[in-house]
Amino acid sequence: MKNQNLLYLTAFLCLLCAGALTAQGFDVAGLKYNSYLGGDPQNADDENFSAQEYELFFNYPKKFNEDKTVMINGLAYAFSQMDLLYSSRLPDPTTADLHLISYKFRLVHNLNEKWLIVPILEPTIASDLREKLSTDDFFLIASLLLVREFSDNFKIGGGVAYTTRFGRPRIIPVIPLQWIKNRHRFNVSLPVKVQYAFDVTEKFACGVKMSIDGANYNLAGYENLPARVNKFSYTLINTGLQAEYKLGKSLILGAFGGITASGQLQYMNAEKDFAEQQLPPSGFFQISLSMRVFED
What is the pTM (predicted TM-score) of this model? Predict the structure, then answer.
């Protein structure tokens, strides 16, 4: 029973990061497509901000230490086409091709029957790759979580994370929580995600979700940006409806769409000075296909 609970809690922590609706499943591989439909940023005349993102990921879990510990190695690649809008006084906006390559190491260790400790390290390359890679293209994302299982239906924890979800890297507190009641599921990872799901059938689940998405990229320079602007970051707060349908034994087709309630673009130069643009509310949608394993 202890080993089964460890696997369930491992899946719970991974689901908090991935945003899946199924409570006791674990995504081992998948594809995602994100589209932000755009809005008119401040100081950019009538130009719309829009972005398209394609993501591929793979996770490999392995148990050891008499099944008290699960090590998860993950690889991910994301390609984004994103408008760089800086000022109405500059030439037409440029669509940048941005690349994000990351390796994620997660260690889920069972301290006892109720407590888990979870360190996570994610070295990342985030760049337009227009020039030779340098140390400015590398970022380290990390977090440390402690989770307590009060019952089979309720788990809560706390920790700290160093992340780029809010654009520029920063340290934030993190509170993961899961509550399950019959076919109702409530997953939270404050302050970056709040999610409610309802299992309509064994194959179909739907619900609502709020999440914060963001990244920080190193740039080689573009004609419509001042010459010394070498970093670009964004933060988007997305709220909408989410649904998943199980295809066969392990394939999951997912959709998430709604409103980007708030957004921010930031541009930084070599002297660490930065300019900001606020994005108005606009639409977005996400389509995903993943391979998920389920615990018995």
Answer: 0.86
